[in-house]
Amino acid sequence: MTPGWITTTLLDNDTPGGWAVARSREGFLHDTNGPLFPREWLKRQDLSVFAEHGIGHLDGEPVYLLELNAAAEVPGCSWQSLRGFMLQGDHTLYKVLGYAAQIGTWAREHRFCGSCGQAMVQVPRERAMYCQACDLRSYPRISPSMIVLVTRGDEILLARSPRFVTGVYSTLAGFAEPGESAEDCLIREVREEVQVEVKNIQYMGSQCWPFPHSMMLGFHAEYAGGDIVPQADEIEDAQWFNIHDLPPLPASRSIARYLIDLYLARRLGHAEPVLPG
């Protein structure tokens, strides 16, 4: 866990004080000092709050999330996306906001019971929403997915989706289906996306990816056969790239970039990178 930031469910919303972040579909509210505000001051602003959750402690101080129905104008403040904060320098702050974003998404998507449609209530001191009619508790969703760098000696297989920033190529990835292991998912996704077979699968690490609630399981795998045929409507382009001549790559804080940089370091005898938290 990042020093200074500890997640917890044991925060009472009736207790005054602490810090708070405000989140809407436009992102997080922030000013020149960042997205953390004195909680009591933030709650006095003209904000349409539909859920409040204690999310943890930062340097010993409690932190709360105010999940909003809509963005609002606050003098001296503006809204910024979570991806924008990811690209900035304060990694601890990004961890706080990433966790807040996942809790906010869960709170927004579980206002009503998925079984009977009745309104759900927040369970005190537990990260759960409760339907009394069904006696059903709903917990934050985590969606496991695999991400893999396929290698062939001094070449790595990179692809780009139409959703990517122009010119950027990345590793292959996909969500696990019911009944699949992470390795089964990897083999299927690589086969579906580029019609390539792989072998010698090695697990390299994982990363929380709060866009909106993924757990990325990272792997290296070696090429075993097949010619690249990009999946229609999913992969815009896919190619083998020599490690000495690479295209624009994903952001440095992503596990995709870590998998690439780790392979390059091992291939070239450089110092290995640290997996982003």
Labels describing this entry:
single chain, 277 residues, alpha+beta, Nucleoside Triphosphate Pyrophosphohydrolase, 3 domains, six-stranded mixed beta sheet, 5 helices, 20% helix, 34% strand, globular, manganese ion binding, NUDIX_hydrolase_dom
Structural class: alpha+beta
Query: CATH homologous superfamily name of the largest domain?
Result: Nucleoside Triphosphate Pyrophosphohydrolase
What's the number of helices?
A: 5
CATH top level of the largest domain?
Answer: Alpha Beta
CATH architecture of the largest domain: Alpha-Beta Complex
* Helix and strand element order: EEEEHEEEHHEEEEEEHEEEH
How are the SSEs placed, and which strands pair?
Blueprint: E1 5-7, E2 19-24, E3 27-30, E4 37-38, H1 39-43, E5 49-58, E6 61-68, E7 78-80, H2 82-86, H3 91-109, E8 121-122, E9 129-131, E10 136-138, E11 143-152, E12 155-160, E13 172-175, H4 182-194, E14 197-209, E15 214-225, E16 237-242, H5 255-268
Parallel strand pairs: 2-6, 11-15
Antiparallel strand pairs: 1-5, 2-3, 2-4, 3-7, 5-6, 8-9, 9-10, 11-12, 11-13, 12-16, 14-15
